[in-house]
Amino acid sequence: MEIIKFIASLIAILLFIYLGVYSLYLFVFSVLGKLIPIKQPATATALSKFIVYICAYKEDEIILNSAAAALTIDYPEDMFTVCVIADSMKPETIVKLKQMPLQVVEVVFETSTKSKALNKAIENTAVGFDAAVVFDIDNIAAPDYLYQINNYLQAGHRVVQGHRVAKNSNTQVAILDAVSEEVNNHIFRKSQQLFNFSAAIIGSGMALEYNLFVNVMSRIDAVGGFDKEMGLLLTRDKIHVAYAEKAYIYDEKVSNPAVFEKQRKRWLSAQFNLLKKYGATAPAQFFRGNFDYVNEIYQMAILPRVLMLGLMPFMLLISFFTPGIGPHWHLWLGATVACYLGIVVAIPTSFYNRKLLEAMLKLPLIFFTMFLLLFKLKGANKKFIHTPHDNAPTEPVNEQTAVK
Questions:
Q1: Cα 316 to the chain's mean position, in Å?
Q2: Coil, strand, or helix at residue 85?
Q3: What is the tens place of the pLDDT at every residue in 126-158?
Q4: Among 53, 62, 70, residue whose Cα is nearest residue 117
Q5: CB within 8 A of 319, min separation 6: which ones?
Q6: Which sequence ranges are marked TM in the entry (predicted)?
Q7: Does the CA dihedral 190-193-199-204 come out positive or negative?
């Protein structure tokens, strides 16, 4: 009996260390990010020349709209080129794209991945560009997006992640997805700058110095999660990723629960596979003083926020009814409060409305969906899992995210 109690206490202590430290991490970064202003770069006079890659897999109607929108970005026409990477597009779509003043790179792969598409586009890119920007098929950039990114590049930053926000709120799932995006923006991008840590790269809306982009893309072979691998490679090379909070890139959030499940399965699989691939390198980098890379690895090891929202009160309840086993319930209460406050503080105040309250009713279902996905990841990172888009009408969650 004593052995069973010892083992149970040991498991409870390890869980508390894992979940409690993460809860404190969320709380510290979230609160400090609200209290301490982030310095913005000065408006640059010199201009970078951009190549804007739009990764397009099927979904022909969406790419026609997105490509047309990209061409209207408010930046000198001779200082940026739009390149559509057309994967498995219809012939008539290719014809329409080629009638626009942009470059079209047609690709077909046995197994499509974003990294393969981007590397093929690089092979077909002319010389002379200062920076590369990556958009997803549904992304719409704010008119001043390139100017905002340029300010950071001219200030000496080599990698800049833009501020990706929701452009639709047509379902409760879409609203929760939008909130999740903003929580991540605040904690894992904006607030990271306070400690001189790199912002987490999302996968679209980011810009890299062109030669650096070519170099890092040549080293990426991930089926899913190319952005996460990019972040690891950059920080391992001690290259900082800046966060341009005012460089808005509007992104369609997932509206359908089934699509949401597939997308999260792909993300979780990529996260854990990359942790397995790179995790063992963290100690060596720590002793070399590369804390930015260690922080990146740590972020790979933590659970999605929605799982924390369910697990923390569950562990608190267990500790309350099992006194003498593991940490006292007061400790679990403190960790749970820190976790919830960290997430709540990170949500922009403009999101707090009736729609959000109604959408929160979906949280238990999403929690169980995400929890079950943890046991369904086998083989998920060996094949490309496409996230289809609904071409949802622009219906901003709040006035701050309105497409102008």
A1: 30
A2: strand
A3: 999 999 999 999 999 999 999 999 999 999 999
A4: 53
A5: 12, 325, 326, 327, 328, 329, 331, 332
A6: 6-32, 306-325, 331-352, 359-377
A7: positive
For the beta carbon of residue 128, count every other beta carbon within 10 angstroms: 9
Most confident of 68-82, 109-123, 212-226, 356-370: 68-82
- Judge contact between 297 and 5, C-beta under 8 A: no
| Number of residues assigned to the chain | 404
Specify whether the CB–CB gap between 234 and 224 falls below 8 A.
no
Q: What kind of fold does domain 50-264 have according to CATH?
A: Spore Coat Polysaccharide Biosynthesis Protein SpsA; Chain A (3.90.550)
Q: Phi and psi (nearest 5°) for 214?
A: -60, -45
Greatest alpha-carbon pair distance for the chain in Å reads: 76
- Cβ atoms of 256 and 176 closer than 8 Å: no
Handedness of CA 373, 302, 260, 369 (dihedral sign): positive
Please name the residues in contact with 197: beta carbons below 8 A apart, sequence gap of 6 or more: 291, 292, 295
Question: In whole angstroms, what is the distance from residue 98 CA to residue 89 CA?
Answer: 13
pLDDT over 70 percentage in the chain: 93
- Mean residue pLDDT of the chain comes to 90
Which tens digits make up the pLDDT trace of 211-237?
999 999 999 977 778 899 999 999 999
Q: Which whole-number Å values give the CA distances from 277 to 198, 274, 300, in the listed order?
A: 20, 5, 11
Domain residue ranges in the chain: 1-37+274-375, 50-264
